[in-house]
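In line with agreed milestones, the collection of sequences with tokenised folds has grown. One record among many is set out beneath this paragraph:
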Amino acid sequence: MNLQQGSVPGADPYFPDHGDPRYQVQHYELDLDYRPLPNRLSGSARLSALTGPAALGEISLDLAPFRIHRVLVDGRTARYTHRAGKLRIRPARALAPATSFTVEVRYTGNPQPVNSPWGGLGWEELTDGALVASQPVGAPSWYPCNDRPADKASYRVSITAPSPYTVVAGGRLLSRTTRASSTTWVYEQPAPTSTYLVTVSLGKYTAVPLTASVPTDGPHPPVPQTAYLPARLLPQFTVDFARQAQMMRFFEAVFGTFPFGEYAVVVTDEELTVPVEAQGVATFGTNHVDGARTSERLIAHELAHQWFGNSVSVADWQHIWLNEGFAKYAEWLWSEQGGGTTAAAHAAAAHRTLASLPLDLRLADPGKQRMFDDRLYERGGLTVHALRCALGEDAFFRMLRDWTTKHRHDTVSTADFTAHAQRYAASPLDALFDAWLHEPSLPPLPHPTDRTTARPGRASPARKSDFPP
């Protein structure tokens, strides 16, 4: 990914102190050693990057207060300062415009979550293990990075840990090597990845394949899917996640080919308030596994984020509705596809809920304090449904698949999406988008227009018989 691709903005308006738009990282190599009992992390990070259109006299990285042992720029020792979450590096001479360079940082310390209005973010020490949940600004809690969602890079992550522990990271497992009492796990994620979407889970897990029941007569082999969970939860998990493979097939029919090489789910051995999406991985808590499929909508939500948020990523956090609105609507699509409540009925329920709450949220710019407000999720789903009603079934689903294809592994804004959707409409959509995205008042509940070519609440890209409940 180069500096000209997609919508690469300046400083993020919600987090102006995070990230540096003057350069872009192309690849991270993280070599880590983690000891759970003392919560001790030793790390070496190598970043391969490209300067922007101006000379770069200082390289600014985001990093929590670890002890820094060495900093190199293009293999040469560089001066640096490290305070207030910023590692500022001064190369011997300014880097020329549009020039490739490398930065290497060696560091040690006890990783702690980054403080935020939503609690601690990033590396979290568990009772027996650890996990990473970084959205939106927790990545610096465990590695030096250019922490902005528009700066997407490929990753190779090597983690050494005590052998009783399984280590899960996003991407393909390249190798697992045991020496004495430690095992080194090496993962590779070649797809461009935002910093907050890089994750690690470490625990005493059993690995379970989830693709054995998927037919192999489709246009391409099934996406490899693996779950990692405490062995005692296997009976309940088998019920709760029984339909994930079918869910993957349905979402591929609706949203287009899965954008990554594999998909993993982790059930960590603690309760979590909400599941967490990462690139190619979703993490759930023990409270999301009960043997009654109670959390299936959340399974759908996290899987849908692989298209909306992970592959097609926001240029900055102002546009977070593009992640959460489509993931919410994916819940509704899966519900109606499996013979449950239709998307239209979900939309009506969401509309009733929003009508009873304060109407002071602008979806296209909710503000930092409200970017995870429940109203954003519900109104985002309603906006997608309003667009479906306006475009009609065929045009709507073509629009969705073309959106995820055109912007695969790219960054986008709300303006990018509205311009894209307009190409599939028979009349201007300005009034619809103004009402749903830019005004706080609640528009009327959307209903299908004469252009709808299939019954409302029925997903047209696949037959129900293809995806049994």
Remarks:
- Residues 392 and 452 are 4 Å apart (CA to CA).
